[in-house]
Design brief:
Bound molecules: S-adenosylmethionine
CATH class: Alpha Beta
CATH superfamily: Vaccinia Virus protein VP39
Structural class: alpha/beta
Largest sheet: 7 strands, mixed
CATH topology: Rossmann fold
Number of domains: 1
Number of helices: 10
Oligomer: single chain
Order of helices and strands: EEHHHEHEHEEHEHHHHEE
Strand order of the largest sheet: 5-4-3-6-7-9-8
Number of strands: 9
Distance between the termini: 42 Å
């Protein structure tokens, strides 16, 4: 009998086909307080990391630019791209979770972005989008949650045009001496109780801190990006390696 394929859901080992439902449950629970919790637990740092991601993308001020933000959640990265780009920048914010997208759509309406943004409910592993249709692809704090990462990377490559840029912002286990201890103590002792206080549930944030420890080291993840076909692959560490921005090109 063939062994079942397994993966991580935090520190738990699960069958690969079980992970997505567990992840979806996490984000359905936290959607309405997701943005507030990000500010509190990262002491605002996620804003700087996302701004750095968008500065690297550099959407043009006047030329047309079609962008796909995958695992776009409540629209935080998509909105930054619209602000940085010109009037002909269009962003499709795609996510598997309708609750997260619902918060994003309300925020976009408040901000008055009109048809410069669209929200698409879809799985990053199987994009319902044509080949070679985007100039840029971003995924921020999303890839760690996807059960079959190589499939999502292959899909990113497929939907990008030649010359298109792939950028991924993601946490990694911290390996800098001293910072690693402080970070671990903060992650495991402060974040889950803080999550309980703000969202009413510690479990989604216990999952968050555990899932970061299971994510590949930046060099290994860069190798996965190369395996999907991307070229000139590189990464940049942010805040002592708490987060990294990975970059690749479809040439
Ligand atoms: C931590 S949130 C990041 C949201 C946003 N990018 C940000 O940085 O604020 C992770 C998001 O990944 C989404 N996600 C998880 N698995 C996914 C999948 N297979 N396909 C698309 N989105 C997925 C979740 O629904 C959630 O909205």
């Amino acid at each position: 009998m063939e062994a079942a394929q397994t993966t991580h859901f935090g520190f738990e080992n699960v069958r690969i086909e079980e992970k997505q439902a567990k992840v979806d449950d996490v984000f359905h629970k936290v959607a309405s307080r997701y943005d507030l919790m990000n500010d509190v637990m990262s002491v605002g740092l996620h804003r700087f990391w996302k701004d750095t991601l968008v500065a690297m993308l550099r959407p043009p001020k006047s030329a047309p630019f079609r962008h796909l933000d995958v695992a776009g959640g409540t629209g935080d990265v998509a909105f930054r791209i619209l602000e940085a780009g010109g009037p002909r920048t269009h962003v499709d914010a795609l996510d598997i979770n309708g609750s997260m997208l619902g918060v994003g759509a309300d925020r976009a309406a408040e901000k008055g972005y009109g048809d410069r943004i669209a929200f698409i409910e879809c799985n990053a592993e199987a994009l319902s989008l044509p080949d070679k249709s985007y100039d840029g692809y971003t995924i921020a704090f999303g890839i760690r949650n996807v059960p079959r990462i190589p499939l999502a990377l292959k899909e990113a490559y497929r939907v990008l045009k030649r010359g298109g840029r792939f950028l991924c912002l993601e946490f990694a286990p911290v390996e800098m001496p001293v910072l690693d201890r402080i970070y671990d103590a903060y992650s495991f002792n402060v974040i889950p109780p803080m999550g309980k206080m703000i969202t009413g549930d510690a479990q989604p944030y216990q999952y968050l801190v555990e899932s970061i420890r299971q994510f590949p080291r930046p060099d290994a993840f860069a190798g996965m990006i190369r395996d999907a076909g991307f070229e000139n692959v590189s990464y940049r560490a942010l805040t002592g390696g708490i987060a990294n921005i990975h970059s690749g090109w479809k040439l």
